[in-house]
Amino acid sequence: MPAIAIRQACKQFGSLKAVDSVDLEIMQGEFFGLLGPNGAGKTTLINLLSGLTRPDSGNLSIMGHDVTRQYREARLAVGVVPQELVFDPFFTVREVLEVQSGYFGISANEAWIEEILDRLDLSAKADTNMRALSGGMKRRVLIAQALVHKPPVIILDEPTAGVDVELRQSLWAFVRSLNQSGHTIVLTTHYLDEAEALCGRIAMLKSGRIVSLDTTSNLLKTCPGRRVKLQLVPDNLPDSLETELLQHESGYHVLKLEAFTDLEPMLEKIRQAGIRVVDMVLPHPDLEDVFVEIMRKQ
Amino acid sequence: MRGFITLFHKEVMRFWKVGFQTVLAPLLSTMLYLLIFSHVLGKHVEAFPGVPYVSFLIPGLAMMALLQNSFANSSSSLIQSKITGNIIFLLLSPVSYPEMFLAYVLASSLRGIIVGCGIFAITLWAVDIPLKYPLWALIFALTGSFILGAIGIIAGIWAEKFDQLASFQNFIILPLTFLSGVFYSIHSLPPFWQQISNLNPFFYLIDGFRYGFFGASDSSPYFSLFVVSICLAAVSLITLWLLKSGYKLRN
Ligand SMILES: Nc1ncnc2c1ncn2[C@@H]1O[C@H](COP(=O)(O)OP(=O)(O)O)[C@@H](O)[C@H]1O
Ligand SMILES: [Mg+2]
To answer: How sure is the predictor about B86, in pLDDT bands with cuts at 50, 70 and 90?
Structure first.
């Protein structure tokens, strides 16, 4: 049984198709990345899964439970960390977690609450009012809230947006340990390096559609855009190479390189134009390149 | 069940923690009404034979405060959590919509009843009010607070901004309560306005409630109970349907 199964999910806002016929299956134990530019529909797709938004059509299920017809079972199986930093100003951190436990039908949750407070470095703030917390602390409380009922599936919607580097590192270590202890993780992030380092599989979303779905290593292998960065003196690219030019980057011309065998003819053209190569970099392709390339093709 | 208890408890804490605004302030404003109206009208009006005006007025004012505060509780709680966004913590949970309905309505009812009782507690020492049929009074107090608690949910779901909620309160709730015979017996009105009052469900709440105190009323308490029961059933069904459909909440 997949942890998450989505079949032909659609959601429209007015004439805008925020989620457009999405099919997706995520297996139990996966660390799955949902990537895409702003407005791609990542949050909307997550909302369809969590029940915060009703689909116009299609079926979604979590751990085999339909999110509409068996909403109670489905919601018990998933913890969602929302993108927005929302909080209830009436309560302290501990009260918030107790209330959330109660919503999930758990009456005596002290031991587990202590443990997540501890693992998220929140123990010192346990009796502080939510209003008095910094943004990073509020983000951690959101994560703690998503975990009160020990859900098998955890969905994190840009959990590191606006969070400092140190906290990002400790958050990822925490999420990775959750994954290692068997939780299925789905995350959206803007930081492609994070997705590359963490996710086993990645779906790329654009305008509500999945435009690419593969394992991270396959994505990197099939990377369409191998590139070469050249520093030239004089700093002019021969006209014959203009079509290969991708961008300028701090004094370098970044050129498309389909295969290594293209390199020699390229250098030959430069030499013939009387231009010298003073530095050359062959960067290892990363997810960012894949991402940029896929987004451009669409 | 646990989810219902948690939400109910949270809703009660929400108004109790700011009891100054949610309980004491309405008590104060009701006492001002009482002072002014009993002073101005007390000498001229006798609503029911043998019942002094101020005695007549107190149950009406208590019921009015009860209704307004029941409405205020669920509606303000919902719009606040919608605007701050923290409603999602409830919406992400498996708490069912009947549980939500009951928790919001009962917490609202509790606030209404506390304010209503507060008014009697304050006036007890000064004014002599009989309590002929306590059960009737209790039934109408409960029904009224349930109805307004449920209407508060509807308004809280529908309104997207605080001023929309204020409009709902000012243009619907306030006129209906003021024109329901709080300050007068509708038999003292011209026939046309009597007819109009007969269409106001709040009139039956207040009239029935008063019957519990004086054993006298403008309308039969059985008929009043019939009307308010139908109202309660209707608003409950509408509210449950709205919650089930996810109207404006799950969008
Ligand atoms: N409640 C809504 N009403 C209208 N449009 C919405 C609503 N929620 C999202 N959208 C639109 O749907 C699209 C997808 O948004 P979203 O899912 O938030 O994207 P992402 O999370 O990938 O940045 C955007 O164009 C956004 O403006
Ligand atoms: Mg988003």
So the answer is: very high
Asked if B93 lies within 8 A of A75 by C-beta distance, the reply is yes
pLDDT, one tens digit per residue, over A75-99 is 999 999 999 999 999 899 999 999 9
CA of residue B89 relative to chain centroid, distance: 28
Neighbours of A93 (CB within 10 A): 28
Bridge partners for A228 per DSSP: A255
**Boundaries of every domain in chain B:** 2-36+51-245
Q: Supply the pTM of this predicted model.
A: 0.89
Size of interface A-B (CB pairs under 8 A): 70
Class of domain A4-221: alpha beta
pLDDT exceeds cutoff 90 at A146: yes
Indicate the DSSP class of residue A69. Answer: T
Token duo for residue A288: 């960012």
Residue A61 phi/psi, 5-degree rounding, is -140, 150
**Bridge-based pairing state of the strands A201-206 and A209-215:** antiparallel
Contact B93/A54, CB-based, under 8 Å? no
In this predicted structure, what is the pLDDT of residue A223? 64
Question: Scanning every residue of chain B, which has its alpha carbon at the shortest distance from the alpha carbon of A107?
Answer: B2
A112 and B CB contact within 8 Å? no
Q: Which of left, alpha, beta for A22 (phi over 0: left; psi -120 to 50: alpha)? A: beta
Cα distance between residue A251 and residue A257, in whole Å = 18
In the numeric block, the tokens 């998933």 are attached to A78
Residue nearest to atom 17 of ligand 1 (CA): A41
Kindly give the residue spans of alpha helices, DSSP state H, lying in B17-127. 19, 25-41, 53-84, 87-91, 97-123
The residue among B145, B113, B168, B146 whose CA lies nearest residue B239 is: B146
Per the DSSP assignment, residues forming a β-bridge with B103 are none
pLDDT computed for residue A224 by the predictor? 59
Q: pLDDT class for B210, splitting at 50, 70, 90?
A: very high
Mutational test site, ligand 1, from A12, A35, A44, max ligand atoms within 8 Å of CB: A44
Q: Which two tokens stand for residue B103?
A: 């928790």
